[in-house]
Structures are given as structure tokens and as C-alpha cells.
């Protein structure tokens, strides 16, 4: 491989006055490092692609070293995974498009352990008999919520679909008109009902639904009464909802199960951490027979949906063939179990569960962090923008507590404006440059500035290292 490169014969297949070097000659002259990183096959293919571009382009022919460098750059870009880490500085802590909850290291390690080795996923180590995958988390969920039984599926949308299908197929499901919500994407309660094979029986009005509305709707065709957490909206003013305790009593009297789709469903009382209150799963189970909630919203674990509640109803859910179609992988159980275990030690939860840690950060601490980082960030922006610090408002995200917000602080990057106009375009360009970094930095544009809410910034060194690539990019194109 390291043999001296023979003087190439004049054998270019395409006789060209522009003298494009041959593939063989370029590969032959490659350094061992270039060949070792990707192998001869991939490197040769990349050289061919670059040469094809040069032929098609018709411009000046770069020298051999530049051609090889471009081939290496193409290979490096190809090797970069499509799904990769970013800095979420949007101010939305549980950002669905940016992957929602961050897992604690312990959970990531638990996942890695069962990925590279066989596990007892469905194997009872005590008896050697077949096991049940939900067994790894069911007892923990029951202990933390007061439920009698629980199952885990792909996400909360799947949990709702499964509950509806298992408990009310070909029957009526009674829902208040104030709760026929769209959660985002294509999850609309009335559509899910249809897909689950249920008939929607709307009761009440958008703003007011009374106990008697439910009482009049319940009958022999009723399969289920469902409550839905409005999640991403709130109605204010002249409103009324049926008293939950009375509604539960009514359902029990008529022998109809009551399901509550909590959406986020917190396992702890957020008010105790200084956050706006959100119904806990335990409280919801005191006035419902089954509840459904997400694993990667306030719970702070992985994408999954949990159905918890009365044993007889959960048994019907578990037996439903859809459960098999909606089941989750061992990675999900490993991560969920590790996170649920953190809840057994409430005093340590805030420090160890990233979602709770980030949600409870104090505005003053975030502002101090912003002041501290501002000079280093300004330096790395290399004259693109000035940096200041301003108060801002973070959101919990994922439909939790839509009208509640958290005071925070942001780095405000105001693009330098030589002409004094067109700030919007410069902001979009700066935001784009930040998105193109090797570890992309995602902020929010408002008032002619790119704002980076630091509530969710823990890895300061990594953040500054990511921004350093801006300075290097600047050096590389000083001439343009
Ligand atoms: C978020 C949410 C869902 C969907 O949960 P996913 O885990 O995203 O599938 C369903 N219902 C409510 C009320 C929600 O807030």
C-alpha cells in the first residue's frame, strides 16, 4: 500500500485537455490513513463520484490532493448518522420533535446491557418457564400508582387505542364534547374511536358537561366512559365538568368502566417541587378504573404508553390481539424499569431524573449561567452576532400544563447588521448555521434575534465545543 507511486502512464480513459487524473492514480496516491478509515472499495467509489462531478461540472480541475480530500469529506458526511444528538435550547423541555424526555445515564446503561447480550425478557429465571415481558415493570408501576395491574405498549396513542378496542369494541364510548381533542399530529380522539371499532357518544357541550348528561347517555350499548386530559388547550370562563367522584360512582352503579386518558400523567405531585400541579396517576386511579399515560412526557422515561388500573380490565387489555401488535422491545423495558426505580427514592429524584431536574431549575441559576457563558459564546460567534442575556419563558411541552410556563433566561444572539435592515433574514441564516453544526444547536427566533433558552443546557463544555466549529468555518471562508 505504501509503495511509491509509479509515474502514471498516459492512460486516462477520457482523453481530456483538462487532464482529469485517473481513478487508479488517485487511489494509488492515497495516504494509508485515507484508505484505512473507509477501506479501498468505499474510497474508490467516492473518488469516482467526485470525478464524475468534475466532468459534469466543466469547471477547472482541482489537483489530486483536493480531489482526494473531497472524497474523504464525502465519506465522512455519509458516515454521520441521520439521527443524532442536538442541543435543544428551544425552551420547550419535552419537545416532541427533539425526542422528548432525556434519560438518566443509568437508564441508557441498562438499555445498552440488554442490547448486546441475551436477557430474560420473557423468561422466568426462578422456574425456567416462559415469562411475561410486562413482569419487569408491572409491580413497580403498581407500587408507584396504586394500580392493581399494568401493561406497556408502544406509546400513549397505542394505549388509548388498545383500551378502547379491548373494552368497548362495537359498543358506545361516552365522552364529553369538551374533551374531543386533537393532541397533535393525527391523534384525534373521535378518529381513534372509529379505528378502535367503537361508536362515539358525545355528551354535554364544549364548555359545560354535567353528571346528568352522562347519566342520560349510559345504557345497554355503552362499553366505556372515557375522560380525556385536554393537554394542549384550556377552556376558561363559563365552564363545568361533572364531579369526577360522582361520575365514577355513577359508572360503578351502572356497571360501566371509566377510563381516563391522562396524556402526561405524572407519578409525583409536581406542586411539591414548586411546579404547577398536574393530576398524578395515583390520584386519577382513585376516580377511574383504568388510566393511560405516556412514558416519555412528565414521567421522564422512554417512548411508551402505560395502561394501569383494575385487574380484570387490564387482563382483558392484555389478552387483546392488538397488545401483541403494539408491544415494545426489551430496550424500552430496560429504560422504563431503570427510570421507575428512581421514583422509589423521592429525595434523590430531582437530582437523578433529568426531566424533573430541568423543569425545576431556578430562573436565577439559569440567568447566572447565561451571564457566565455569554463572553465565550460571543467569541465563538466570530463577529456574526452580539450576545446578550434576557429573561424568557420555558414551556414543559408535550401538552402538559399548556397554559403554565416557567421563568427562565436566554442567550440572545442578535445578528450584526451592517446595513441596519433585514434582521429576519440574518436570523434565519444564523439559525441555519447553528443547525448545521456537527452537534446542531436548536434555538428559537423572535424579535430579530436567535434565542437560546439555557434551562435545558447542562453540558456547557459540549455546547461551547459545538459552537467552536463556527469559528473554524469562519476561518475557512474568510475570502467569501
Ligand atoms: C400526548 C397525549 C397522547 C399521545 O401520547 P403519545 O405517548 O405521544 O402517543 C394521548 N392523549 C393525551 C391526552 C396526550 O396528552
From TrEMBL:
Signal peptide: none
Cofactor(s) annotated in UniProt: pyridoxal 5'-phosphate
Family: Belongs to the SelA family.
Function according to Swiss-Prot or TrEMBL: Converts seryl-tRNA(Sec) to selenocysteinyl-tRNA(Sec) required for selenoprotein biosynthesis.
Location of this chain's protein in the cell: Cytoplasm
Catalysis performed (reactions): L-seryl-tRNA(Sec) + selenophosphate + H(+) = L-selenocysteinyl-tRNA(Sec) + phosphate
Domain L-seryl-tRNA selenium transferase N-terminal: start-end pairs: 18-53
InterPro entries recorded: PyrdxlP-dep_Trfase (IPR015424), PyrdxlP-dep_Trfase_major (IPR015421), SelA-like (IPR018319), SelA_trans (IPR004534), SelA_trans_N_dom (IPR025862)
Record EC number: 2.9.1.1
Highest rank taxon of the organism: Bacteria
Pathway assignment: Aminoacyl-tRNA biosynthesis; selenocysteinyl-tRNA(Sec) biosynthesis; selenocysteinyl-tRNA(Sec) from L-seryl-tRNA(Sec) (bacterial route): step 1/1
Major subcellular site: cytoplasm
A GO MF label: L-seryl-tRNA(Sec) selenium transferase activity
Gene3D superfamilies: 3.90.1150.180, Type I PLP-dependent aspartate aminotransferase-like (Major domain)
Positions of post-translational N6-(pyridoxal phosphate)lysine modification: 297
Protein's name according to its UniProt entry: L-seryl-tRNA(Sec) selenium transferase
UniProt keyword annotations, A-Z: Cytoplasm, Protein biosynthesis, Pyridoxal phosphate, Selenium, Transferase
